[in-house]
Specification:
Two copies of one chain form a homodimer. Chain A is of the alpha/beta class. The first copy, chain A, folds into four domains: 14-299, Rossmann fold; 306-478, 3-Layer(aba) Sandwich (Rossmann fold); 489-600, Dna Ligase, domain 1, CATH 3.30.1490.20; 606-731, 2-Layer Sandwich (D-amino Acid Aminotransferase, Chain A, domain 1). Chain A has a seven-stranded mixed beta sheet with strand order 9-8-11-10-12-13-14, with helices on both faces. In chain A, strands 15, 16, 17, 18, 19 and 20 form a six-stranded parallel beta sheet that branches. In chain A, strands 25, 26, 27, 28, 29 and 30 form a six-stranded antiparallel beta sheet that branches. In chain A, strand 19, helix 16 and strand 20 form a beta-alpha-beta unit. In chain A, helix 3 (90-99) packs parallel to helix 4. The radius of gyration of chain A is 31 Å and the shape is flat. At the A-B interface, helix 5, helix 8, helix 11, helix 17 and helix 22 of A face helix 5, helix 8, helix 11, helix 17 and helix 22 of B. Chains A, B: Keywords: ATP-binding, Ligase, Nucleotide-binding. Chains A, B: Residues 17-112 form the CoA-binding domain. Chains A, B: Pfam families: ATP-grasp_5, CoA_binding_2, Succ_CoA_lig. Chains A, B: GO terms for molecular function: ATP binding; ligase activity.
């Protein structure tokens, strides 16, 4: 089995708070319907070893523990306070906690930012007190916290056991659902749970760092409605995923879901497709469906990774081998091509009618001999072409289905699988149709740390997550940080001038910026008058030219009639200029027209779009897609957080559905992918070097079999210079 | 709750075989590892009431029942024989069964067509005997049969109970998996199971008709690797789905899965996308994942249908309301817009902070009062805008999570939900995170016939299937059979001439066929010489024209340089003709060139493709998609079996992802959908009327805001006149 990859240095301040030496329960109660009762029960029943300080001015004792009239009256030094009282009381209590030296407070109450402006004001008041008194805040509007290895069970869940799955969930019901699934599963246990609620202080990034550092956690599992600081989260995720798996379910895949989320936690959902791409870029295992969260978390926690995506299937039923093959292919996994020597070894032990082509179908060979399945798994696990092994079918149920006398052999098979799991680094994933009734052989496998699934679909999701994680780790180790690009003073000057004039870069300036950093942009000239255009015509000669109006006042040049294509010779150019001037004057009589940009028409090729936005949650993000219907109708685009690695750029090109077109269709040659990757990387480096660049849009870029041409370039300039400075600091 | 819709007249000959008065078990055995032992145990333990005749020449008794040395020696009149002996013995035994008056035989042995040509020969030999002696064959290579309401349990499964789910599965493991899931579920029972195996005689269509007629079956559930006669299956499915739901999981969604299936049952998989479209057209509920089969079958069996796709969500947790919203939207369902009076009634019973916009989030209102959830369900169920009700969250677990004292109120809530289910036709679907541990309130709901799910995703699949089925039934009732189209003798003559000359229709003939049946095809002329072209030029005048070579020897006109576009005036036409003649002579010096087809260039518009193939499994199928990348790269096409209804044609246009383009993008007007629908219907009727038409390809058709123009038409002629005649008979 795969160990986790290393340790993060301890840097999170949350360890003291989440594994506290003492806890104050503010609003502790003897009323069983109150959270202040539940929390006390949870601490007492689980045997919390630190000091418990119930705070309740109306009680001497709560559940047999001496109570205190106020936080100030507490004699000891609790590190954590659980505040169970209503929202209005919170700011004062937080201040009191701070004065008493309490490091962190969990705020259960709702009625803060998620309910509107009054609540938001209360939340700001609470945060002001917290900052003034040095108290870190979990919540508000949180379902609470547990840390089972330290017996801190403030939710008083009685169906959870200590284990290695850490959970951060913006839904309390989701935690309960996972806890009940785990109880039913029988093997999954939990380390720490936190509900981040409104994240008014501590956010997903902080909690994730804590789980990354926590030695009891082998897999971090997150239900996210919205990130507070997405860029920071990605940074932490990159660190943590290098050590251990991080599983994220992100809600808001649809507009309907985003609306529901915003009324739940006030979360700003952002683009779902972008979020998923950026999380994957940081090595996160994104799950699409809520019922895959626990299976994938369990599988990644136990097995950590596979070397790659080549799966060997051992099956005792042709139909389920077929289903497995469909699901594996749909998930982007491969049926490993078994070597001839592997196939010979399989033929040596199986009936002649067995299929030794992957998926291996034993075709009855194991009916009286189920341990032979373990032998088959051993054989394929030794094949260099195999990255993981997937057992599909009846194992565990042979003694039920065929004859009770097979129990002994079935248990021997289970032992052999356990031995194999210990001796190989290749993950073994087991689907058995007998999983729902948990027969002894499956219980043995599960207890020994081999996940056993009740559905082929769930098993394949786990295999896919293992393969993706293995490939991520391998490329991440090889990854070379692209060297930073030095901004050139004259180009920084372009931005300053534009900022001073309250405009964006003119297209010829944008082209200059790109060209001077090595991007292929066809030559252009700007003619400001008829005579200048005459000179330009002479310079270009007889090649077909494009002409575009240059004006800070005209954003949509085509709509304004400001673009003419395929012009040959001076006469055509002068006529085009006159037409453009006429159209633009009708379009906007006040527009100041600088002149006409003239540039050669590009050769035919494949049109792609490269864009950059500064996302309010994730910061600078690069977008890539094919032009036309692919972006506009099909939203077939890939996103990556800037800066990109070379692998990131290459993976964008592979991700889009339209990649077939880049590979060449209808006899067209493949486009120059390396040049395209260089382009994406250079754009990423330019964005890093010029914080004044707010947005960029190269639409289209025409890619050829050799190289590419940027045909249109638009650069939006950051107007808020304050923001520019802040950004500079935050990336420094 | 919804009753099933009616009864099919009894027509299937399988009732005698699947509910037989007596059974011969050929190869009955006292050896517990043999199928001939298992079958005997199954019949005896389940208390089969008919006569059992074990056949075994070496035993006097099998499991206490008198055994007979041969089929011939049996004294009674069994209707069914279970043949457990090896493949080689089967043909002789089938003949013996026939002579003894046995109506049906189940052949368990493998080693027939699925293993290659020797096996195929044996299968033919067996079928010859079966036909000669009037024995119907189940299998070979089948996992067997049960009919639990008649206590015929030939698989000796001891974990299945009688119920209303009928199963036909080409995978024995899949049946076992469903049986174990049902055992774990606790409520699902089964009526009849059959493994069709190689379908050498009885096929999926026959079994489905039987389940349709079987009064113990409320839902037919099929695992299919391949249909033998897909067209027949669709016909039966249309009959059965009008009465009761039919759930199909079709394997082979990928090439990998198709390969695996073909080595399993020798099935010819066919196009997965086409199969799914055609099944849906016939009202079948297609499930994509194997772990959705049982949940969807249970839900459809219990609830039958929803009036439409508008779902009201009642939730006690914002996070899960968000997940539900995402999944509903992804599944094409709608969050019902609750009426103002409904919202007021909800506000009257819920806390002020509750959200009464769908998804309804009770926000703590039910923490001490779980039966209020039932009240909310009643309120939304009475809203005319609501077609089905989805309860999401903790119901069933309030007494566990909050206080044991809530048990009474929770049980009252369950009773109220049961009452509501009885009084409303709107389906109630319940997801509870407590489902895995089956608390009393959920057990009560489940026992009363309300399905309770452990996953939001599965619940939504059920809601989607209910909504799709309701919409199918509604449109199916409204549906008017398109009147048949009478073939015109002169057009039939075109086919006869082409068949006689061993060629396909010339394009002008294809255009004539379409035009004379009312399809809009721009006028064309065929010029066979320079002077003819002069006359044609005069006729058209100054409009831009297209010219295409007419030759039976040149299939790919563009590749041969046989197409010229945008020609204006006689000079241009004559030059184009000369160029085309030159190019075509180089391309194929032996090509016989009839002349040049000249036609006006079409106005700009949206390019679509209409195609017809005669599929080997499903017969004539119409395909529709947008031109260019949509068909070629994205395979974004819709298929329907011919003949189409008007609804079928309209639904094709709605199905494709590119439908946004038809609705008008970038300021373009929407295309004339009614004209497009008329075109699809007319093509369907032409294909029905001319069985000599083998394939048709209208590529492209250019659709405008008003009408369309068929720009290129290709009609492939059926060469095998024998086949044409056969087809004529089969549709007669």
């Amino acid at each position: 089995m795969n160990p986790i990859e290393g340790h993060l240095p301890i840097r999170s301040p949350l360890h003291d708070i989440l594994a506290p030496a003492g806890i104050a329960v503010i609003g502790a109660s003897n009323d069983p319907t109150k959270r202040g009762y539940k929390a006390m029960v949870g601490l007492i029943k689980d045997g919390y070893r630190g000091d418990i300080f119930p705070v309740n001015p109306k009680a001497d004792m709560v559940l047999g523990v001496k109570a205190w009239p106020s936080v100030t009256a507490i004699p000891g030094n609790p590190e954590l306070a659980l505040i169970c009282t209503p929202a209005a009381s919170v700011p004062g209590l937080v201040a009191e906690c701070g004065r008493r030296g309490i490091k962190g407070a969990i705020i259960l109450a709702s009625g803060f930012a998620e309910v509107g402006s009054d609540g938001a004001a209360l939340e700001r008041e609470m945060m002001a007190k917290a900052e003034a008194h040095g108290v870190r805040i979990i919540g508000p509007n949180t379902s609470g916290v547990f840390n089972l290895h330290h017996r801190v069970n403030l939710l008083a869940l009685d169906n959870v056991k200590p284990g290695d799955v850490g959970i951060i969930s913006q839904s309390g019901n989701m935690l309960l659902a996972l806890a009940l699934e785990a109880q039913h599963n029988g093997q999954v246990g939990f380390s720490t749970y936190v509900g981040p609620g409104n994240q008014s202080d501590i956010g997903f990034d902080d909690y994730l760092r804590y789980l990354g550092e926590d030695e009891n956690t082998r897999v971090a599992t997150l239900y996210v409605e919205g990130f507070r600081d997405g860029r920071k989260f990605l940074e932490v995720a990159r660190d943590v995923t290098a050590m251990k798996p991080v599983v994220v379910y992100k809600s808001g895949s649809t507009e309907e879901g985003q609306k529901a989320a915003s009324s739940h936690t006030g979360a700003l959902a952002g683009s779902y497709a972008m979020t998923v791409d950026l999380l994957r870029q940081a090595g996160v295992s994104v799950v699409q469906y809520s019922d895959e969260i626990l299976p994938v978390a369990e599988g990644l926690g136990l097995l950590q990774k596979a070397r790659g995506k080549r799966v060997a299937v051992i099956s005792d039923g042709g139909g389920q081998a077929t289903i497995a093959s469909d699901r594996l292919a749909e998930a982007g996994l491969e049926l490993a091509a078994l070597s001839e020597s592997t196939r010979q070894r399989l033929r040596d032990v199986l009936f002649p009618q067995a299929s030794t082509v992957n998926p291996v179908d034993v075709a009855g060979s194991t009916d009286a001999n189920p341990s032979l399945l373990a032998t088959c798994m051993e054989i394929v696990a030794e094949d260099d072409n195999v990255d993981s092994v997937f057992l599909v079918g009846m194992f565990g149920g042979y003694s039920i289905r065929f004859a009770e006398s097979l129990m002994g052999d079935e248990m021997r098979g289970a032992e052999a699988m356990v031995d194999l799991a210990r001796s190989t680094t290749k993950p073994l994933v087991i689907y058995s149709l007998y999983t729902p009734i948990k027969p002894p052989a499956l219980r043995r496998l599960h207890e020994a740390g081999l996940p056993v699934y009740a559905s082929i679909e769930q098993s394949v999701r786990v295999l896919a997550a293992l393969g993706e994680r293995g490939q991520y780790l391998a490329q991440n180790q090889r990854q070379v940080r692209e060297t930073a690009l030095a901004p050139k003073p004259e180009l920084s000057g372009l931005f300053q001038r534009a900022q001073a004039e309250g405009r964006d870069l003119f297209e010829h300036e944008a082209r200059q910026l790109l060209r001077e950093h090595g991007i292929d942009v066809p030559m252009e000239r700007v003619a400001r008058s008829e005579p200048e255009l005459e000179a330009v015509a002479g310079e270009f000669g007889d090649v077909p030219l494009a002409m575009k109006v240059v004006s800070k006042d005209i954003l949509h040049k085509s709509d304004a009639g400001g673009v003419k294509l395929g012009l040959v010779g001076e006469q055509a150019l002068q006529r085009a200029r006159a037409d453009i001037l006429d159209s633009c004057r009708i379009y906007d009589p006040d527009a100041v027209i600088e002149g006409m940009l003239v540039t050669p028409m590009a050769r035919k090729g494949v049109e792609v779009i490269v864009g950059v936005v500064r996302d309010p949650i994730f910061g600078p993000v690069l977008m890539f897609g094919l032009g036309g219907v692919f972006v506009e109708i099909l939203e077939d685009v890939a996103f990556r957080s800037i800066p990109l690695s070379r692998h990131d750029a290459a993976s964008m090109v592979e991700q889009i559905k339209a990649k077939k077109i880049l590979a060449g269709v209808r006899g067209e040659p493949a486009v120059d992918k390396e040049a395209l990757i260089d382009l994406l990387l250079t754009v990423s480096r330019i964005v890093e070097a010029y914080p004044q660049l707010s947005e960029l849009d190269l639409n289209p870029v025409i890619v050829h079999a050799d190289g590419y041409a940027v045909v249109d370039a638009r650069v939006i300039v950051e107007r808020d210079t304050q923001h520019t400075l802040q950004y500079k600091e935050s990336v420094a």
